[in-house]
Amino acid sequence: MTIDSKDLDHDAAFAALADPTRRAILSRLADGEATVNELAEPFDISQPAISRHLKVLEGAGLITRRVDGQRRPCRLAGGTLEELEAWLDMLRRALTANYNRLDAVLADEMAKQDLKKD
Amino acid sequence: MTIDSKDLDHDAAFAALADPTRRAILSRLADGEATVNELAEPFDISQPAISRHLKVLEGAGLITRRVDGQRRPCRLAGGTLEELEAWLDMLRRALTANYNRLDAVLADEMAKQDLKKD
DNA sequence: TTGTTATATAAAGCAATAGTTATATATTTG
DNA sequence: CAAATATATAACTATTGCTTTATATAACAA
């Protein structure tokens, strides 16, 4: 396998998060379930555009939709969110773990150069 | 102000993370500093393409570059990473905090419907 | 059943993005 | 100084993504 399927999920999820309208939708959903129209209301864009954004968010595993009569209430979804956080956390940990050593080396080199300058 | 400048940063950062090549570069950088050519080597794409990806990552605040002769060693950058994690964490917390209540309500309605069925 | 409401899909336009090749710039090395 | 190395920029193309309007579908209400 060339690309991990998890990685493809990350593709879709991060791409979904790259749009400010979609992040605003997620923020709104943090307060609880909302229907498509409720989600569309604060925005100046058309309802079909919102539907499309929701499809993207659902495809990315960031929300789920249930059926309630003619409504399709949306809610935040768990799994993907945790995976993304875990991935970012891996980077952050690596950063603090691997670069302190490097910083010391670089600082040392700087010091040597300063000495040479004299 | 209509849009928070933080939010624009998130735009750039999440968009940067949406590309698998760029995520692979970040993963590589988790092991420590690397030059442009070192970063380019594992990929089938051209060096200019890598330079462009690095520019995107730098613009997103995810890496920094220093000058070392003709090399431009890249390293992970902190701040943005933590902000993204914090944002995702906000969502995740809201999810567990606000939806348990809702789940109870929904489960309750389900139960009522089951009773009505009789 | 007819009108209305909630949402989805389709078609089309435009802007942004990632890739390419060719070339420029700066640094190192002989 | 000349050749080689490391990286950046430019110009161009192809693809993708967001938006819109128009229309379809499904549920509800009268």
From TrEMBL, chains A, B:
Which residue spans adopt a coiled-coil conformation according to this UniProt entry?
none
Offer one Pfam family short name for this entry: HTH_20
Q: Which InterPro entries match?
A: ArsR-like_HTH, HTH_ArsR_DNA-bd_dom
**From what superkingdom does this record's organism come?**
Bacteria
All copies of domain HTH arsR-type, residue ranges:
3-95
Name by which UniProt lists this protein: Metalloregulator ArsR/SmtB family transcription factor
